[in-house]
Specification:
The structure is a single chain. With about 140 residues, the chain is an alpha+beta fold. The chain has one domain: Beta Barrel (Thrombin, subunit H). It is about 20% helix and about 40% strand. The protein has three helices and seven strands. A seven-stranded antiparallel beta sheet has the order 5-4-1-2-3-7-6, with helices on one face. Strand 1 and strand 2 form a beta hairpin. It starts with 7 loop residues before the first helix and ends in a 12-residue tail after the last helix.
Length: about 140
């Protein structure tokens, strides 16, 4: 009888193909005595294709949290990157610099609905394609 269970490396690779972390580092200057607090956040997401558009799909509260950080005058967002090297066969271990403020973003975080998506321009799609993150193995069409 054939074993249909995925081996750990196969399972890791399956999820690693489309898992992307949206990472953000920031500085908060609102502390006492002009203290500076540095923060780093890593938010999980996945890539999907809807109507030939590549989307980074994550929770709405994450994108809401990031928007609030950008709007807060005491917080300076220093760096945003996409970390796309979670697959077994990743070709690079360097994150992709990501200009989040210029990307079309949609999120809902209300009444139990928690959904967020960022449409990725071709530039980011090409960079993700160079790693193993976007081999075209996931396709959702409506």
């Amino acid at each position: 009888m054939e074993d249909k269970n995925l081996q750990p490396a196969e399972l890791f690779n399956l999820f690693g193909y489309h898992f992307v972390a949206l990472c953000l580092s920031s500085v908060n200057t609102s502390g006492r005595d002009s203290a500076i607090t540095r923060s780093f956040h890593s938010y999980s997401g996945t890539l999907i294709i809807v109507r030939n558009k590549v989307l980074f799909l994550t929770a709405g509260h994450i994108l809401k949290h990031i928007d609030l950080a950008y709007e807060n005058p005491d917080i300076k967002v220093e760096k945003v990157v996409l970390a796309d090297f979670h697959g077994v066969d990743s070709k690079t271990w360097r994150p992709i610099p990501f200009n989040l403020r210029d990307e079309p973003t949609l999120y809902i975080d209300k009444d139990g609905l928690d959904f967020g998506a960022i449409a990725l321009r071709k530039h980011y799609q090409d960079l993700l394609q160079e790693s193993v993150t976007m081999p075209g193995k996931v396709h959702i069409a409506y």
